[in-house]
Structures are given as C-alpha cells and as structure tokens.
Amino acid sequence: MNKLIKNATVVTMDADDRIIENGYIAIKDDRITYVGEELPADFVAQVILDGRHKVVMPGLVNAHTHTPMVLLRSYADDLPLQEWLFDKIFPIEDELTAEDVYWGSTLAVMEMIASGITCFADMYYFMDEVAKVIHKTGIRADLSRGLQCFDTEFDPMQDVRLLENEQLFKDWDGEGNGRIKVRLGPHSLYTCVPGYLQACAGLAEKLNIGMHIHVAETLKESQECFEKYGKTPVQHLYDLGIFKANTLAAHCVHVSEEDMDILKQNNVNVVYNPGSNLKLGSGITPIGSMMDKGLNIALGTDGCASNNNGNMFEEMHLAAIVSKGVYKDPTLVKAGEVLKMATVNGAAALNLSQETGMIQPGMKADLIMVNMDKPHLYPLHDVASSLVYSAQAADVETVLVDGQILMDKGEFKTIDYQEVIYHLKKISDRLFKR
Ligand code: NI
Predict the structure, then answer these.
(1) Which of 134, 175, 275, 361 is most buried per CB count within 10 Å?
(2) pTM value surpassing 0.85
(3) Domain annotation covers residue 428
(4) 3-state secondary structure string across 300-342
(5) Residue 128 lies in a domain
(6) Ligand 1 centre from 64 Cα, in Å?
(7) What are 282-310's pLDDT values in tens digits?
(8) Residue list, CB under 5 A from ion ligand 1
(9) Measured in angstroms, how far is the CA atom of residue 214 from the centroid of ligand 1?
(10) Which residues span the domain enclosing 32?
(11) What tens digit of pLDDT does each residue of 120-177 get?
C-alpha cells in the first residue's frame, strides 16, 4: 500500500541534517521511497496524511527499558536504591506471571507509541510474551532476557535463563518483517559472577548477536567492583570479553577517562538515562566528555519503576539541560545533538542504522507527526530547539512503524485501549491489594 505525507516540515536527521519545508514523503509498503519538495508525479497513494502545521521526524528510539515494569509505576518512590529494589521491587517481581508481563508490556508499548517512540531495547523475563506484544502491536524492538547468576559453580549449558535467551533468539530474531531483534541480556556485573559473564560473551560470539547490560550505574557498584576485582566496572567487563559483542551499555555514570577510552575503542554504545539516574540519585553520565571522545550515545527511559514514564520527549529535555546545570556550561549538549541521540544514535546503537532513525529513501517508514499548532510551540524559530525544549509527548499525533499507522490523531490502530486497562486493573488488584 502507498502512503503520502504532504505539506509537512520534515526533519530528516540524515547526513546533511536537512529540514524540508512543505515537504513530501512517499511510502511504499514498509519503506520510504521519496523525500523532498516536489510531489512525485507518478506516485499514487491510497492514504494521504496532511502535514500542515506538523513536524515529521524519525520515530524516537528508546534504547534502554524494562517494559513490564510499568506494573510497578508509582508503587515505591523516594526510597534509597537498595531498599527500593530489594524490599519493594523484587518481592512483587517474584509474583509476576507470563500474562502479567504480556499486559504490562502492552501498556508500556501503548504509552511509548503515544509519545512518539517507534523502537526500543527491552530487558526483562517472560520475553516470549513481550515478543508477542511487539508482533501484535506493530512496534519495533530489540529484546533480551535479563540474565543473572550468583553461583560460581554453575554450568552454562544448564542455565535456564541463558537457554531461554538463546531460544528467544531462535524463535523471534527477524520476525515481524524484521521488526523483532534479539540480543543477550546479562543484567550487570553485580548480578552475574565473572564466569557467567564469560559464558555470555562466548554465547554472543557463537550466535553472532549483541549484548545489553547495565554498566557503572551507581557509585556503590563501582566501589564494590574495585574492592572485589581491583578494577573499574568497564575494565572488568572488557577483561571478561563482554565488549567483543555489539554492546548496549546502559548508564555508564561512574566512569573514568580511561574507561571512556575503552568504551570508544570497543565501539560500545552508551545509553544515557537521565530521568532514571536523577530519580534514583545515581549521578550524571559525563556525556560531554563522551561526545568529545566520539562515543555513540543513545537515550533511554529505563523501566517505569525508576522514571516513572516512557516519555522520550521528557528524556530529551533532561538530556539537554542536566549537563548544562551540573557543569555550569550552557553550551554543553545542544538541542540538535539530543535529537541525534534519540534517533540516529539510538538506531546505530541497536545495529539498525540501515533501517531506522532517519527519513530518507530506502529506510523503513518509522516516523512521527508532531502537531506544532499549539500555544507553547509558537513562534517556530528553530525546529530542533522547539522539539527538545518546548514540545511535549502529547503533541505527537500520528505514528508509523514499518509503514503501518499505529496511531493517528491520538487514536491507537493496533491496540484496544479499554481491553488493556481492564486487564491492568485486574492484575494490579491481585498484586497490590493483598
Ligand atoms: Ni535498567
């Protein structure tokens, strides 16, 4: 089916960073076939989307989250990290069923679509259920089974979690017209013994897949790593071979100059999660230094228990202002750089540079339409600035992934809102009202 978007301000995010006024975008099935100022003469569209007063930009890439954690939204806040995690979060997570994860993930996907996210990297368990959600809702995702192991005597061939992650790869990688990708998800160095991390590195090499891991999120993690292994978290993970795989490293808050050099030399992708890091009091990722070193920095929301939303517009705003305040330098982290983090850099981090993150012919039609006809968006002197500093998630009106319309004028096309809320209430009553 052919679709045409007309009369839009198109923020391409392509190599030339083009912004096209009164632009046209032609879409054939799942891919963009034309972007420019002229209406393609021979193009007949079955669906026409009017872009007047709208910015059309690549869909946002949320490069680190745990979607089913929406079930824990607003349940335990304003607590020290250890108490929050061990006394509040883990006991509820022990109760979760596959069905809970299915509906939790669906709610998270609905929230993400509504705020313009078209692709995300997810780490949790019952990931088969999440894969079903991706397949059904039409969004794009990179999935990993959260892996942990505290047993130094373990046998990697018998480890249920590792086997599940491998099976997830065999069952789902490339499914949904390539919308679903799978990588390994060793949770962190403090939940995985060194031998286990080595086994993960070996399996990633065997399957030729990427890795998704939390790195140097808190000072405690870094201090304990140094006490136990005499190294920084980054050095420790490097020595265990983790970075041989295409790695998505969430957080990287407590890193040294040398650590950043190691990350750069190994092409590790850093995922900056300012909302989560601020809320949990973890600190601030030194993205200014990382950008100077040429590291690829993507943006993520992290799970909903630590954010508490899946809103990349909020994350972009935070990413742009936090470093300015902390380092007392208003020139740090510019609006255009933040837009890149949320689009092209995210796509690159997920190994999807040839597919998504830009609006140009040949790319997948993963794009969003943002309504700029709102009081808080006039006057429009600088589109990037307006998107990062002024626009809100609720300004997103229309969302396409793989050429399919998932939301139009705020209405979900692949998800039944009432059905999801019905299940959410039932699950929430069971988990929390005992
Ligand atoms: Ni996380």
Answers:
(1) 134
(2) yes
(3) no
(4) CCCCHHHCCCCCHHHHHHHHHHHHHHHCCCCCCCCHHHHHHHH
(5) yes
(6) 6
(7) 999 999 999 999 999 999 999 988 899 99
(8) 302
(9) 6
(10) 2-59+355-412
(11) 999 999 999 999 999 999 999 999 999 999 998 888 878 999 999 999 999 999 999 9
